[in-house]
Prior knowledge:
Blueprint: E1 9-10, E2 53-55, E3 59-60, H1 143-150, E4 154-163, E5 173-184, E6 190-193, H2 195-198, E7 203-208, E8 216-226, E9 231-235, E10 258-263, E11 271-282, E12 293-296, E13 308-311, E14 316-325, E15 334-339, H3 340-353, E16 360-361, E17 364-369, H4 372-377, E18 384-390, E19 406-410, E20 413-414, H5 418-424, E21 433-443, E22 453-464, E23 466-467
Antiparallel strand pairs: 1-14, 2-14, 3-5, 4-5, 4-7, 5-6, 6-9, 7-8, 8-9, 10-11, 10-13, 11-12, 12-15, 13-14, 14-15, 16-23, 17-18, 18-19, 19-20, 19-21, 21-22
Amino acid sequence: MYENNNGYQPTYNFSTDPNQNPQNNQYNQFDPSNNNQKPPKKKKTSTGLVIGVIVAAIVFGSASGFGGSYLASRLDDNSHIIADQPDGSENPRVPGTTEGKENNAPEENSTTTEYVKPENEISDDLSSLENMANMNTTKAYSYEQLYNAVNESVVVVGNYVANNGYYGDSSVDYVKQGTGSGIIFTTDGYIVTNYHVVKGAAKVTVTVSDKFSEDEEMEAVVVGSDSATDLAVLKIGREQPFTAAPLGDSSKLNIGQEVAAIGNPAGLNKSMSRGIISGLNRYSNGKGYELSSIQTDAAINPGNSGGGLFDMYGNVVGIVNSKLVADDSSIENLGFAITINEAKPVISDLINFGYVTGRPALGIITAQISNTYMAQLYGLPSTGLLVTEINQDAPVSQSGLMIGDLIVKVNGADVESVYDVQEATKGLSAGDKVTVTVIRSTSDSNGGYFGSLVKERTLDIEIILTESK
């Protein structure tokens, strides 16, 4: 089990590196400490408290080396961003996303739906989206009735990586590296799931079991995904309509209210666990673009990621994505789901544009220098964010910021990670101005970039924010 300092574990079993950038690689970072020299370990301190780990509930596949639990990026505060596959290759593009390389061509017998964007822009509350199931507000179900009403809308989402076989073999094979859950929310095949369920996939499949088919696996198009909120939208299609779950209203939830989680834990498809709402407005660490979460004591296990948290009327009130655990098993029944009301505008943007609009970004790529050892190793005067690339199409290219500058403050707030930048720019929009404090170093003529640094100066640079895509 991978762990981080926040005590959170996403609910999807996965094998790739957890630390995906929360701004769609707008501030894509590498880990400069990933070499043979490792910083000294910090001394352990006794606090008298048991620190939990939030884990995603995804089920690992059969690819070599897979095991453990994937740490959702939105909950990970160590900010090491590594966007490579487990074998070290670069992330292929997931069909329909705006990240990475183009995906390998689908197989000839694939059931992939060619995605056609809706003619009219979908509203933030999704009320203008056709083929949605109507929210039920009249009659509460028993748990048995609830399951019978909505279980056909819960699907298995498969994450496949490309395997080119033996050296020199030009054929493309796919190996399943993980599975999670998803919820069909329109009869024509729109599905909401977690970003970390489809992260790094060369191919994404959806397995449907309903009155028209039993365990039918079809290739899906990833309409859009957003690592910051851990949400993704998929699209599948067939002649017959799908069973769609109605999206509810999470603003009306109360602590103590009965709920049920339906997903695919440990490969046990369409499993339901019952519980209550244990808490509302929970946040993992209050940074970045995280959405508020519902806390529940319904059993959440690997494989539940992307599945539904349903009220007793059969409405989806949350998207299950994480749970709190401890190595000594002292923490139990602390599961979390993204509230559906906050998820709806993200889903809308993903359908309309393929990404979340209006999110501000500096327009640069940086490497995190998070401790004194790393700073000394690379001849840098301080911790911070080292500018490694500048988007020449963004306003920052005209600001005077230079590659090699070390960003130490944004609007007066200290920054050592991408999350710090997100926190400092929270509430701002593309077009707004921020002041970035940098340390600029120069070297002697023989030293080169990492040569003997002979001069350092601190500069305040005004940058116009661009839109993160």
